[in-house]
Every structure is written in C-alpha cells, then in structure tokens.
Amino acid sequence: MSPETKNLTLVILSLALGAFAIGTSEFAAMGLLPWYAADLGVTEPEAGHVISAYALGVVVGAPITSILGARLPRRRYLAGLIAAYGLLNLLAAVLPGFGTLVATRFLAGLPHGGYLGVAMLMAADALPREMRAKGVTQVLLGLTVANIVGVPVASALGQAFGWRAGFALPGLLALIAGFLIWRFAPRQGVPADARPMQELAALANPRVVLTLMVGVVGSGGMFAVYAYLSAAMLATSQPPGWAVPAMLSAFGIGSTLGSIAAARMTIRLGAKRATLALILLAMVAQGFAALVVGSWPLMVLSSFILGLPSVFIPLQTRLMDVAGRAQSMAAAMNHAAFNAANALGPWVAGMALTAGWGWQSPGLVGIGLSVLGLLALAVVALHDRSSGHSLRPGLPG
C-alpha cells in the first residue's frame, strides 16, 4: 500500500469513526430510555423529551453550522465539530439532573448535520470523480454499523454500569475521531467557491423544502415506534437480558440491508417512486410492530423489519438533483429533516402513551405519520408537474 493510499484510508476511517460515534449516540438514547427514565424519576413519555431535544438540536444546528463553516477549512471544521460533539456527550454522561440531560442532548445535536454533510463531501473529494459515491457510502457506513455494533454495545454498557456509560462511549469515540481527522485530513484552505449566502438560498427553493417535508413526516413513523421499542418490550414481556441489545442490533442489520436495497430501488425506479414504495413498506412494518407487542421474540423481528425501509437514500438523491450549488446545505438539511422526524415521532407517540392508549399506540401513530408522508410526496409530485420539472421516465426524480 502506497503512502498516499494509506493516508486516504486513514482519512476515510477517521470520518467514518465520527459518523459511527454520532449514530451510536443518537440511537443509544432510545435504547437507554427505560434506564435513565427510572434513574431520573420521570415517566417514559417524559424521558422521550431527551430524544426530541437532540433531534431539535440537529434541526437548528444544520443550517447554522453549514453557513458558519462555509468559510472554514474543512479539516478544522470537521475536527472541531466532532470534538465538540464528544465533549457534550461526556457532559451528558456526568452532569446530574433530567433538565441538564435534555439541555446537553440538545447542544450535542447542533454539530450532527454539519459534520455528516461536510464529511461526505470531503470523502467524495478525496477520491477520483468516478469513485465519489464510494467515499460517501463509506462515511454513511459508519452510521449503519453503529446500529449493528455501537448501539447494542452502548445499551449493554448501560445495563451493566448505568445508563451514563452508554453516553460516555460515543463521547470518547468522537474525541478520538476529532484527533484523527486533525492528524490525517488534508490541510486545505477555504474552498474558492465558498458562498455562505448561496448555501442559505437552498432553504428558499420550494423543491428542496418540499422534499425535506417528506422526510420529516414520512420518517416520523419509524422513530415513533423505535423510540419506545425497548420500553414496550420491558413493560409487556419478560425478555432475557440480551434481548434488548439483540433488538437494537436487528434494527441496525435491517437498516444496513435496507440502505443497499433502497439505493438499487432509487436507481431503478427514480427517487419519488422509490420513496413511495418505501413509505408503504414502512406502514406494513409499523402495523406489524403494533400487533406483536407483548411477544419479545416477535418484537426483535419487528425491529429488523422496521429498519428495512430506508427513505433517506432516495430523498438524498433527489436533493442532490434539486439543490443546485447548495449541496452542503442540502446534505446537512437532509439529516436535519430526519432528526425533525426523530423529534416529531416520539413526541406524538409519547402523547398517545400518556393518554393511555397502550404500548400498541406508537405503531398506530407511525402509520398515521406515514400517511402524512404519502400526502407530502403527492404534493412534491404535483409541484414538479405544475412547475414543469417532471423528469423523463427512467431518470431519478
């Protein structure tokens, strides 16, 4: 292996490690929910505010970090963001009180979208043009592997040593990633074509905004179910100690396989048709999750099925087509949209649980949000047709 190839590999691995830390922290918060709820003396629906606070942090932070980072060298920008992410996770692990946990999780969400969006661009630019997609995929692999390995490990640590250990793990990993990025990433100047206000213009593009809305409501159903899976399993069945980590890992395996399948569907069907098919599949998965509450083996299976419909892939493809030069903002805002879904889904499902609708209600809430996702997708199709942007058959759109 040549020195250049070795250094490139280290850069990609460093960026992917940061994505792994982010994925572990984000989803471990859902798996650890029963434990920090009990320790901090709050109900499960109230503990869901921890998840929603993080998601809102991503929504707020994505456009802000994209604008502020447009005039910064990518190496400093990425190393700084992921290091701040690590420190905030460690603060969440050590500071007392429920309100403090909610606040630190909100702050930890701020660097999420900006880091992942620019990390994908750096990985793509580090490779020859014909291999750019490979760099993006390698960074995103950190997120999917986090659900298979990182989240179950964080959950197991939380059960064995207390929930705070589950937040400390991704915090340490993020700090390591920040050091590696600072050490190995290329020392580049500010991009010559960096225009912060041009990035902001993406938020005024109706095709971008409508696409993001599909992600917000269309994915909210998945988060409504996933956020309370661990709590529902523990409340309605008597699973062995390994069942919760196995359920979280099953979701990660499903989402990894689903991402691969979604990419192929998007290439074959186009972004809108692939999104339609995946939202319909998500409705089936959410209905199945509601039906099997009380049977922990079937709940593990439902977690796997819930991970299969990866709507993120076709929507990211569409955003690349409609965002013009504001690619950084579009990439960051796609993560923001899915974290808005992460805030919306648990919040609505939490209200259903508080109202006494039972542990099946998150699945029913999920179906309702998916229906709204279908309506949003219909608005996207009508807008494309009315504005003359309908694409020829066989092309993504």
Report what the structure shows.
By secondary structure, this protein is mainly alpha-helical. The chain is built from 17 helices and no strands. Helix 4 runs antiparallel to helix 5 and helix 4 packs antiparallel against helix 6.
Count the DSSP helices: 17
In the CATH hierarchy, what is the class of the largest domain?
A: Mainly Alpha
Share in β-strands: under 5%
Mean pLDDT: 83
Order of helices and strands: HHHHHHHHHHHHHHHHH
Number of domain units: 2
Low-confidence stretches: 391-396
* Oligomeric state of shown chains: single chain
Strand element count: 0
List keywords for this structure.
single chain, 397 residues, mainly alpha, Growth Hormone, Chain: A, 2 domains, 17 helices, 81% helix, disordered C terminus
Question: How would you sum up this structure in a few lines?
Answer:
The protein is an all-alpha fold and 397 residues long. 81% of the residues lie in helices and 0% in strands.
